[in-house]
Amino acid sequence: MEYSAFWWCSAQNSGVLSPIDEIATLYSILDQRLTRLLASDARSLLEGRLLGLEREALRVAPDGYISQVAHPKVLGSALTHPYITTDYSEALLEFITPPLPTALEALRFLDEVHRFVYRHIGDELLWAASMPCIVAGEESIPIADYGRSNLGLMKHVYRRGLAWRYGRIMQVIAGIHFNFSLPDEFWTAFQQQEGDRRSPRDFRSESYFGLIRNLQRFGWLILYLFGASPAVCKSFLDGKSTPLLDYDDHTCYGPYATSLRMSNIGYTNRTEKKSGVNVCYNSLDEYIASLGQATVTPWPPYHNIGVKVDGEYRQLNANILQIENEYYTSMRPKQPPQGNEKPALALKRRGVRYVELRSVDINPLDPLGVNPTQLRFLEAFLLFCLLNESPLLDADERRMIDDNQMATALNGRDPDLHLYRRREPAVPMREWAAEILSLLQPICELLDNGEPSRLYAAALTEQQQVLSDPERTPAARMMAEMRASGENFFRCTRQLSERHRRFFEERPLDQSRLSFFNEAAEQSLRAQQTLEAADDKPFDEFLADYFAQS
């Protein structure tokens, strides 16, 4: 049997406008939409938007290596806790805020989670950077354990499969995820202004997909402005060759790099493309179909690994993707699953509820890894992606998007960097970025909504300054911190991690918030016990039922 690449997107060479006319048309549509919003009650409906944060943080032992200590039980169950869980590794914590109305509220909650966790991890550190600490080989990374329930075992086996497919080292990179949604009242008003006759659910879903396509087109700007991983400990490379330069015997760096995490050294160094995965974002139906196809298409190298060997699962299956979440992308459409529902099935049944931006590096210079000015800019940027016209993607533009992201991740601070955009010759990155930032001004006015503090306008001004001076980017500031301290990546980041620990420990939680998190931990442990007691079928049957959902 032969396995060939598949391409699901239906839009191929569909445009007929000249590049200049097309750009003018795109921006005129943005202007028209903004004019209608500014003149209507819809601007007040934006106040109902919600945002949430997910911050990954590696637990690091005092010797600078990844912690070998199990997830502390006092923090609760990593399987069922709503706010404190683990990602790939037992040592890779993930902190989750609920959806909240403002950046300050989300950061306040995230701050409280940090303060609670630091009460219970002894002399360990929460690593302050996206790229990890000293890595003593694959076996030094403990895979997350979620208990004896079928659901917990499925999550563990999935991670075991990632280890066999890609190696464990790649999985301990950390990031910030930014969740964003707009209220139903906004969608109703916006749909009326657009004169759209689809069902409200379909209009909302397809509008979110337009946002995602534009995020892919313009997402390189996030890597420039917020990329904070220009250097990496050589232990992470595990002896592999790299185009990076030596900083010293223990650190490599990119002279113009912004986000090694988002380069071929980090998350995008994956095999999905080799196996023909081309997930399509031209509509919800095409997205579900293309992603679903990858989860049922066998891939010979994974077949050779084996699925169940000597009675133990190595992976959930031998398909291109074990489950949908294995496909890494800069943004995901999301609909909260009900029970053990497949994510794509939740989308199919109830449409897109929110989007999850996944391309933001942890800023080592900030205790929380992210700040309110950054989040306000992201809100404005995602609204720009939503309100701007979003043509369907074809194969050529998909390749441009990938090339632009890689170029910015590796060389974003190069003053001579040029990028490609839809049906145009290469343009200077800074020129294109300045164009986008100028288009954000009326969006920030919309979000400020007459408030005299003009916080969104201030957030935009700050990023315009970063664009004009690459030394103000987080990546450049991190390199400057290393040089000023006279330390390499590992030692400098450990110093920053220790500084951040003091920041949290000097502000203990008050009793009410401490009680809140203690109760959440206890409830999660009880919920895990309930799940384990309720299992009434063998794991093989549980898996078969999960994959049979349709």
Structure write-up:
The chain is of the alpha+beta class and 550 residues long. The chain has one domain (23-501): 2-Layer Sandwich (Creatine Kinase, Chain A, domain 2), CATH 3.30.590. It is 46% helix and 10% strand. A hairpin with a 7-residue loop joins strand 13 and strand 14 (427-428). The longest helix has 24 residues, at 511-534. The chain is globular and about 60 Å long.
Briefly say what this structure is.
With 550 residues, the chain is an alpha+beta fold. 46% of the residues lie in helices and 10% in strands.
Kindly identify the CATH topology: Creatine Kinase, Chain A, domain 2
Structural class: alpha+beta
CATH classification, class level: Alpha Beta
CA gyration radius, whole angstroms: 23 Å
Looking at the structure, what is the overall shape?
globular
Level-2 CATH architecture: 2-Layer Sandwich
Number of domains: 1
Whole-number mean pLDDT = 93
What proportion of the residues form beta strands (DSSP E)?
5-15%
Distance between the termini: 26 Å
Task: Report on the biggest sheet.
Answer: 7 strands, antiparallel
Helix content: 40-55%
Number of helical segments with 4 or more residues: 20
According to DSSP, the number of beta strands is 14
Low-pLDDT ranges: 1-8, 10-20
